[in-house]
Recover the amino acids of this structure.
């Protein structure tokens, strides 16, 4: 049981590192497509350069805040796993105590 | 037991892969939304755990079988663990989404009340002994369960809270819904596994106490 929890902790950590190594960067094509769509949907004529600047700025803002968001995500999963691990260690300790008490009774030749 | 253990481990690994590697990133909360999968699943597992406690508390009151009481206690203990997870992971979400760690809105408050009632359940159990302990804790288990529908329907009863409508979680985008379903199944399996482990331990402890009391009684005579 303890091994399963520890392994799953490692998996969480691994997946977390794997998932968070990739920043949410938008490709040039995606940005160009977004600008094109925004220009087409606009009722008034828009300056494409200004629009492109605005899109780039908001993408940069989104990327900059990513580390903050990942901190929240990591903290939540850390807390969840910490509670599970503490509980399983608590169960394990209780089991050990019970085994000790049973062994003691056996030593006293009490029929179990 | 081994099969359940292996199945639970596999489901947990799959759910974690789906959360971090498969489910789409939600547009508003972005990566933080991924807290949802285990937070909501833990909250729903709480309902299952306290439901088991309530059913076996009723069964104990009717049939007065010691094993029903042991199963009820094991379920309550696990319910408390999952409730703690929901209560601790929730504020992390809240801090990002609502810019506050805690808010005395209906669902949060009723969940805290639920947690406190089951803490009270264990305080009561430690304060009493024998049949009295089993009887009073069974009654308290049933009363405490009355808070579960209040928690679930809190957003409908008291409007204007921070939690979204009950239906929101069912209207998720496909990859998110699939991920959530697997995460929920994984936590329910984990609950089942731990319930079996805890129940067996409680049974062994109870048997030990019976043997010890019988033996001590014989020795003192």
């Amino acid at each position: 049981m303890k091994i399963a929890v520890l392994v799953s902790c490692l998996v969480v950590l691994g997946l977390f590192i794997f998932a968070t190594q990739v920043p949410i960067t938008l490709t040039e094509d995606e940005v160009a497509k977004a600008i094109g769509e925004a220009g087409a949907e606009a009722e008034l004529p828009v300056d494409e350069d200004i629009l492109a600047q605005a899109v780039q700025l908001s993408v940069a803002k989104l990327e900059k805040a990513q580390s903050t968001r990942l901190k929240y995500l990591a903290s939540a999963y850390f807390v969840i796993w910490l509670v599970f691990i503490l509980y399983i260690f608590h169960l394990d300790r209780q089991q050990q105590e019970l085994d000790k008490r049973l062994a003691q009774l056996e030593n006293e030749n009490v029929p179990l | 037991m081994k099969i359940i253990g292996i199945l639970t481990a596999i489901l947990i690994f799959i759910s974690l892969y789906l959360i971090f590697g498969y489910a789409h990133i939600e547009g508003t909360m972005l990566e933080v939304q991924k807290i949802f999968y285990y937070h909501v699943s833990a909250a729903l597992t709480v309902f299952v755990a306290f439901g088991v406690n309530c059913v076996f508390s009723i069964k104990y009151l009717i049939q007065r079988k010691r094993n029903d009481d042991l199963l009820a206690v094991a379920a309550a203990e696990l319910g408390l663990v999952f409730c703690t997870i929901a209560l601790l992971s929730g504020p992390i979400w809240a801090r990002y989404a609502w810019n506050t760690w805690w808010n005395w809105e209906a669902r949060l408050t009723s969940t805290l009340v639920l947690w406190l009632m089951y803490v009270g359940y264990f305080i009561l159990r430690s304060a009493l002994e024998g049949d009295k302990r089993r009887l009073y804790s069974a009654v308290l288990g049933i009363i405490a369960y009355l808070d579960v529908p209040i928690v679930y329907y809190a957003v409908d009863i008291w409007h204007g809270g921070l939690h979204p409508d009950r239906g929101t979680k069912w209207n998720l985008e496909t990859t998110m819904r699939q991920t959530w379903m697997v995460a929920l199944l994984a936590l329910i399996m984990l609950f089942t596994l731990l319930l079996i482990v805890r129940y067996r331990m409680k049974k062994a402890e109870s048997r030990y106490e019976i043997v010890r009391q019988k033996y001590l009684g014989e020795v003192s005579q």
Q: What stands out?
A: Residues 2-107 of chain A form one domain. Chain A has a mean pLDDT of 77.
